[in-house]
Design brief:
- The structure is a single chain.
- The chain is an alpha+beta fold.
- Strand 6 and strand 7 form a beta hairpin.
- Helix 1 runs antiparallel to helix 2.
- The protein is elongated.
- The termini are far apart.
Amino acid sequence: MKFLKIRKARKNLKEALQYAKRIRHMYEDIADPEKIQELRKREQDARQARRGEDTAHMAAAGDALIKICKKTAPPRRNKKIRENVEVLFVAIAAAMAIRTYIFQPFKIPTGSMQPTLYGITIQKEPVIKSDNPLASVLNFVLFGERYRVIRAKAEGMIRTEMGADGLPHLYGQTNSDETSTLYIGNVPHRIPNKLIPFCRFGAYLHKGDPMVQGIVKSGDYILVNRFKYNFVRPKRGDIAVFDTRALTHPQVRKDAYYIKRIVGLPGETLSVDPKYLLVNGKRPVDPRFNKIFTHPDYNGYQFAQPTSPPPLIGKPGDSITLAGDEYLFFGDNTDQSLDGRYFGAVNRRQILGPAFFVCWPLDRAGIAEISH
């Protein structure tokens, strides 16, 4: 029995010594030097006591060691709260690491990939038609729908100007963030481009009257796999996100990410024969492109509209030849897409990764490639 008591006392003292060692390593540079010196002395006493067989001596040495440990590193107040906060910060750090290096969410703001992926759209009525406030919450949570109204800040009509064709045209300016600035008198109103067709043109508005209103459906929220392209090359047909900072076209936002479909790979020459894409003079053999060429929901690939500077693929005979580290991106909806036909190739280093899942709105959730 005495042997078991000695063994237990030595075990308890060993644990106290390990605890003291951790405290000393953690606080040696910031604690009171006298307390560190005393801690070392108590550690030495505990090791000597552990070599003997006096259990009472070992217990006293252990108590003295723990006591100086608490003086060196006093127990923190609100320990449970601190631990919960630390766990929260670790969880946030882990989530940020996943977001930065593995799966990153992005929002589709425009219609350049419709109907494969949807940007912000406008509809006349919500899915759940009810005056109950709960219906509005459900429409937003399930379908990404919210009622939007922009009110006139001045009295008058939305300004237009007479065009060369003798017809009134919109007076205003297009902004780089998918909005336009319209005027009532000289007062500017910033309107999302998607809402402009719903503006009350021709109506005389009083200050506070609805200038435009409608049901706005959020664009798709997608997950992008930032891990995949570290191990495999991007493939033709992939829907991928890329950074725009290195692009020089004046209409491209420099602080944005675009999502398009990869149509050209390094070393290839790309051109358009409406409604077909040509890779080195031939149509690509891929069900994803066959869908774009033939499905009635798609318009196929078209020439870019005249712009300044002129587009790179805007007429028969135009083509783009890619270097060894370049890729070309087109939108699936080329009628509404600022893409490689205008700004050209994208360097491999600019590509973040492929989109693989639509996570919201819930009525469109699923694999990103599937057309809804």
